[in-house]
Amino acid sequence: EASAQLHEIKSRIAADTPEDILAFIDSHLLMLEDPAFDEGAAAIIREFSCNAEWALQVQCDRLVQVFDEMDDAYLKTRKDDVLHVVQRIQHCLAEKPESKAEPVKLKGRIVISDDLTPADTLMMQHQKVAAFVTEFGGPLSHTAILARNLGIPAIVGVHNARQLIHPTEQLIIDGHYGVVIGEPDPRSLKHYRKLRQKDAVRKQRLNQLINKPAVTKDGVHILLQGNIDRPEDIRKLKQYDNTGVGLYRTEMLFLENNQSVDEETQFKTYKRALFRLKGKPLTIRTLDLGADKEIQESMGQGPMAHNPAMGLRAIRRCLKEPESFIHQLCAIMRVAAYGDVKMMIPMLTNIHELDQVSALIEHARELLHQRTVRFNDKIEIGAMIEVPAAAISSEVFANRLDFLSIGTNDLIQYTLAIDRIDDEVNYLYNPLHPAVLQLVNITIDAGKKAKVPVSMCGEMASDPKYTRLLLGMGLNYFSVQANALLEIKDIINNSNLGKLRTKVRKILSCHDLNEIELLVDKLNN
Ligand code: PEP
Ligand code: MG
Fold first, then answer.
1. pLDDT (tens digit, 9 = 90+) per residue, 180-239?
2. Residue 183 and residue 170 in contact, taking contact as beta carbons nearer than 8 Å
3. Cβ neighbours of residue 7 under 8 Å, at least 6 residues apart?
4. Is 457 marked active-site?
5. CA angle, residues 474, 354, 246, in degrees to nearest 5
6. Of residues 28, 60, 84, 142, which has the active-site annotation?
7. What predicted TM-score, i.e. pTM, was given to this entire model?
8. 42 and 50 in contact (C-beta within 8 Å)?
């Protein structure tokens, strides 16, 4: 059964799935045939008269111990494969016969679910799901961001959706406005078909901006780059514009495999991204696992954190597990020998964390020297500014680093104390809150003072509503969702920076959220 499941997964994933992911499925298939599993477990059943699940667990513990005792760091991590395969068999053993129904074909369907993880969303793209609706989760959750990046229409936080929507119902999912229409009448269908046509015309007009520079009316060049989760996303990015990447979220590689990934696989994956960019720059963000991005091996280890977004996430987790982090540092420094690659550290809160990162980078350098492999000794390193503490002390970070990038998704979450994946408090999530604007402004100013570039890679940069405001604040580097590239460029090309500065100064001195919203609307009209 476990082997049939793996064959099924293999046959269903898209043709452009990276070889390393296919290889990992193959290695699990090979393991399933290994007598160490079935003969070993059978011997334990005979000896102890225990059930199959238990016997398999005992055999698994023995195998894991063998891997743990190995000196080779690469082989050591292979124990994760054993755990993965054992879990799969144990699931099959525990499954009730009635749950072995034919898997539903999802192509072209709309999925209605209680909640989805970012990994589910990736799988949906492979399965060519038409759209999805979840009962929980906020629009700034990684699931929602991924859906936007992958171009899957989605609405999150629709309470009771599973009860209110019938499985056979025809649906319209309007992801722009968060509207679900069940059994639409002919007028609604006509309206939405028209909207689709209008959108196509708008896209055609924007397509004329492909490969054109982003320059304001008064001649200021603005750097526009894209956000990606996987090397495969670069194809989509190139469809919109020929830009570099200002944020590559590497944790998606781990989520797709649902386990840690060794240095070699990381190196090959990052290199594939770099080569697909054909000379354009690539900013690789180090792992940001934790909170809503978890892999199997870290689940169930100790009690659940009460407040995972404030817990062991991103750089905190990497510093707690330096052996694994070194693999990533080495992989990034190696790939930086082949082109314009920068390294970006997420969720720094104080300069001591940066000291620790620097020490680990130094250690990675020594290791790579010893191994005599090709790597870039002078890779540029930057910090994400996404915690209020970091924004307030951004000058210190700017003085120590090559660049800063503002992560507004988290910066807003932590400034306003609202969980970005909790739909109950999402109404409070507002990039225009005066406190958020002050923190963004402090960071942009700190970069200017230290003469280091400051970009913004959070969703605020991808929302055309805020483009002029950010330009007026002095932001001249945006990293955005692929499908927002041309629209943002269009706004930049139709803006006069000189005029914006004075108006934005007035907005920054304002403390009333309603007034700020009105003034921002005025900027856009
Ligand atoms: C952010 O926080 O704004 C950001 C870009 O990082 P992520 O969304 O991956 O947390
Ligand atoms: Mg973040």
1. 999 999 999 999 999 999 999 999 999 999 999 999 999 999 999 999 999 999 999 999
2. yes
3. 29
4. yes
5. 45
6. 142
7. 0.77
8. no
pLDDT tens-place string over residues 35-69: 888 888 888 898 888 888 888 888 888 888 888 78
* The two three-digit tokens of residue 333, written as one number: 């420094």
Out of 60, 318, 330, 457, pick the active-site residue: 457
Beta bridge partners of 134: 113
- Give me the mean pLDDT over the 276-290 stretch: 96
Bridge partners, residue 244, by sequence: none
Residues 483 and 464: beta-carbon distance below 8 Å: no
Cα distances from 233 to residues 85, 144, 146, 337, in angstroms, run 29, 16, 11, 22
CA 385 to ligand 1 centroid distance, Å: 10
Question: Catalytic: 92?
Answer: no
What are 121's two structure tokens?
A: 């969303």
From the CA of 142, give the closest atom in ligand 1: 8
Enter the tokens of residue 360. 């680990």
Nearest Cα residue to 346 out of 390, 385, 380, 307: 385
> What is the Å distance from ligand 1's center to 443 Cα?
16
The gap from C-alpha 451 to its chain's centroid, in whole angstroms, comes to: 29
HEC-encoded secondary structure of 43-99: HHHHHHCCCHHHHHHHHHHHHHHHHHCCCCHHHHHCHHHHHHHHHHHHHHHHCCHHH
Closest alpha carbon to 214 in 489, 495, 405, 521: 489
Cβ neighbours around 282 below 10 Å, total: 28
